[in-house]
Amino acid sequence: MYNRKVIGIRIRNLRLKKGWNQDDLAQAAGISTKYLGELERAVKSGTLENLETIAAALDTTLSELLAYSEQLGQIEQSHTLIEIVDMLSKRTVDEQKSVSDIIEIVLKTFDQKK
């Protein structure tokens, strides 16, 4: 079973990585822009057929799209973690490393207070 919030985030991230807006992806996948927006916001769940079409338009596979969902779903069904992953996915590797370093410092501070 996949997490529709994670799938929506993944679709949006892949779309943005291609430099596409929702209209571009909707046209490439043969779906309406409204429906795509609802998928990205997790208002609706996509059918496997639609997700496969969207994945193909994004130059990935349905398996990779769902594997990403499963991977994040196993971390925890936490909205906060998903949002953090979403924010970091839009940043450069150097920026991600800087954020990781900051998190590490904060967590060490928390551990010292225990």
UniProtKB/TrEMBL annotation:
GO terms for cellular component: cytosol. The keyword Metal-binding does not apply. Residues 11-65 form the HTH cro/C1-type domain. Pfam families: HTH_3 (PF01381). Keywords: DNA-binding, Transcription, Transcription regulation. SUPFAM superfamilies: lambda repressor-like DNA-binding domains. GO terms for molecular function: DNA binding; DNA-binding transcription factor activity. Gene3D superfamilies: lambda repressor-like DNA-binding domains (1.10.260.40). This is DNA-binding transcriptional regulator, XRE family.
